[in-house]
Amino acid sequence: MGLVKRGNSRFWYVQFQLNGVTFVRSTKTPDRKVAARLEDEWRAQVHLQLVLGVRERISFLTAIDRLIATKAGTPNHHNLLSSRKVVERHFRRRKWLDELTTDDLERFKRDRVAEGVTVQTIKHQLNLIGAATKLAGRSGKQIPSVQFPTCSIPRHRVRYLSVDEERRLLFELDPKRCGTGLRPYAERSEVLKRSMQDAHDLVVLLLDTGARYSEIANIKWSQIDLQRGEIRLWRPKVQNEGIIMMTDRAASIFRARSSVSDVGEFVFTNRKGAARGYRVQSIRKALRRAGLADCKIHTLRHTVASRLIQNGMSVYEVKSILGHTDIRTTMRYAHLEQRDTSTKARNVLNLVRVASS
User: Fold this and answer.
1) Distance CA 169, CA 304 (A)
2) Which is the most buried residue in 35, 189, 229, 293, by most CB within 10 A?
3) Phi (first) and psi of residue 6, to 5 degrees
4) What is the tens place of the pLDDT at every residue in 253-279?
């Protein structure tokens, strides 16, 4: 045995026995010299594994890709692909998975913190590396002996806008507002007018739906039913769809935008007519001008959830509106419901006391 031809294949195959086990593998080359070299390498590799107990190596990125492949079709698959790009950039000098060190992981965490990335995001990216390492180990590959850094997510109160803060923000987003560096409305370019109108309308819809930014920024007209006042909201992050009833304000915005002559596939578009994508600079500037520098785009989603609970909806009802897949995510607003319940309890006890006196 050694190099053999099999069937009608033009490639050479390596075939040999070791410890009573027969090994066969295609070299995927018709060149005998190349095939002979590959045979030597494979024999040596098998000998290391079976006789000396040395596991086969796997490249760092191959291990990552194998893990991501197991998550295809899941809601988290897209996020894992995004994390892979970051991991590849930071671990470029590590070819093999078993070369990974604890210091590499600590350095990655420090660099990401310095870049201003949230602890939650860093934790997800480290989890990707950890899960890929475990999968490689279960597959019999060489894996590193490392300690993953802890990423404690700080607990803090949910930030949401008051009615006055919303008013200030919308004032700064008014498409016809005057301000430093802005020409009178009639003298502005059509591109600038549309950009300012888009930012205003987008924020209002976020405030009136509780949707994530991407769910509204990339929404299609096919998801809008103006006659019924419904939005069929597809949520890519969690892979589910919900029906959101339009507020009067949201319906007014959709009607106005549908009345223009160049309506395309998407409600909000970039300059090429495709989905708007992640363009939030103008909204962030408006937040700062409104004195809301501590707020983010996601604060608008918190605002909706907080207002719904403060006005009598339960966390389970809000879970449905926001499209959360886990009630634990919605429970961050539970203290608002508890405060309302506590107020009701106080009023009942006061009434009982008055009645008994």
Assistant:
1) 15
2) 35
3) -125, 125
4) 999 999 986 788 999 999 888 999 888
